[in-house]
Amino acid sequence: MDCASCASTIRTAMERLPGLSDIRISIATERLDMVVDERQADLAGIVGRIEKLGYKARPIARDAPAGPFVAAPSWWRTAKGRIAGAAGLLLAAAALGEQLVPALGEPLYVAATLVAAAPIARRAFQAARAGAPFTIQMLMSIAVLGALLIGAAQEAAVVVFLFCVGEVLEGVAAERARAGIRALAALVPETALLDEDGGPREIAAAQLRIGQRVLVRPGDRVPADGTVVAGRSGVDESPITGESVPVAKEPGSEVFAGSINREAALRVEVRSAASDTTIARIVRLVEESQEAKAPTERVIDRFSRFYMPAIVGLAVLVALVPPLVVGDWSLWTYRALALLLIGCPCALVISVPAAVASSLSAAARQGLLVKGGAVMETLSEIDTIVFDKTGTLTRGVPAVTDVVALEGGASELLARVAGLEGQSSHPLAQAIAHHAASLGLAPLEARHVEAVPGQGMAGEVAGEPVFVGAPRFAAERATLGDPVAQRIAAIEAEGKTVVVVLRGARLSGLIALRDEPRADAASGIAALTAMGIRTVMMTGDNARAGAAIAEALGIEARSQMVPEQKAQAVKALSVGGKVAMVGDGINDAPALASAHVGIAMGGGTHVALEAADAALLRDRVGDVARLLRLSRATMANIRQNIAIALGLKAVFLATTLAGLTGLWIAILADTGGTVLVTLNALRLLGHFRGRRQREPDGVDPAHGPATA
Fold this sequence. Notes:
- 50% of the residues lie in helices and 18% in strands.
- The radius of gyration is 32 Å and the shape is elongated.
- It is of the alpha+beta class and 708 residues long.
- The chain has 24 helices and 26 strands.
- The strands form 6 sheets. It has a 7-stranded mixed β-sheet, sandwiched between helices. A 6-stranded antiparallel β-sheet has the order 4-3-5-11-6-9, with no helix packed on it.
- Among the domains are: 191-276, Calcium-transporting ATPase, cytoplasmic transduction domain A; 399-514, Calcium-transporting ATPase, cytoplasmic domain N (3-Layer(aba) Sandwich), CATH 3.40.1110.10.
């Protein structure tokens, strides 16, 4: 499939077959998915109908990896390439024959036209039988036949040749767009070294099962997503996340299939099947996202359904009405035929999906995943971005900075709290438990532990009820007193989060923690501000802690917010504007869902791929601005494509009706416009290359220097 009209023809043909529903076609991957009622339809009949339209079809397994894995042959080996070559040779022979024997010129041009146009007419006839009469092949066949009937055989031959060349160029451009997805899918090696007692054994990577261990030597690509169980090395993850500096891996670290081991041997335990690796998910997402049409694309699709019949009707009027008034049937028939070719909407229909496909592929190779053209278009209109704080603007790894025991000693306080917090997965709870363990303190046994939503943890430790939570919630359970309140205020003024520990109704102590901003957070916020984007940070922390972080980053802060309040605030900001929410994809699910676009960051690769409308695999604040720049560039490219498509048609429509241009110019306006639009869209594949040196994202200590 080379353009949107191919997909439209196939879809129309499938819709007329009984027993088929939920028909989806991806031009980028040349894949057709549908639900088949086997009582009414059969696979052989489906394949046969597709092949009658001039395409080759082969069934693929339900769990087959996504992506165009089979590269198209060189253009001169394709059916369209051979037809174009034959048309060129026949046209040259006719031109030479006309010079040698002038009387043979007309018959030779007719022969050249018929031989080259026969395959096109056959495809047009099959498409019409399948219920798609308004195809470029049908318009082409009518135009060529009409040209022969009015004695314009030479022009008919030239038009057929140019049409064939245009189809070849469309195929080359479409294959180039698919190459990006294919290259991504090809990152996973075909073989793996299975680590067994008798030594490593080479097997197909697709045969790996969860729980098996593989040996990854220096220089090898990791064959599957997994966890390092032995060895330490630097791994190049740039093929997956765009991260330019190797990331240090040690036992317990996760690795991606397709990443490259650079330094020392690693033993990795497989945790994902071949069809479920991060690479496979990215490829599948890029494929599926192209089915989610942008609003502009949907408008153009609706327009084209009425546009094609209207053009045919206009051509009929041009062929009939003027001759009845001024005569000269041959002249006006010729102009009507040229109008048919100019009117084909191929370039207009492909203008949006070509740009969207290129931008989605470019983004995916940079670790920026966007679920469809609709999301990309909405991103270009965003005027406010809301950030969660913990794990998004900050590193998400808080550490204990102060322990204030108000009764007993600090060690006793930590041991008591660690028994309670050790049973929680909350980052602050884990930080306290880790701090106690690092001091060699054994946590006291805790019973009847429960999380108090949005407030803290409660339970029974050493026979006493214990509550650990934020000061404002602790104040509802006990009297803090002015000295303690002042102490809390002083600590919070330093940008720290204070946890209050209560034993029954008694105040037992305070624990302070701090989560440092990401290294690129300030520059990432500054980049958004420079783009005219309003930035807001929402956090459950106290106002002083939130203000301290916000001041350092140059962002507006809203503090002491539980998840439900964040969602309500996002909805309020959405009134009169377009809002994106950036969060970890788990705790901020309500707010992500409330925004026009939810962007997942910091929630883990698999969660990030599924939790929101877009995902940032590198966990960088700077990538938000990069994603918005790409969305704006995509919409600018789409506007350019629409202008090219409509502009060419408007110009040549006027010149054709005025008699200034003929059939061969008309076909150039159609196929040439399609090629121009596709090539312009392909420029988006290099969007990030031109910005790499100009837009540093800062340096993250966990990842090294960043590149944009």
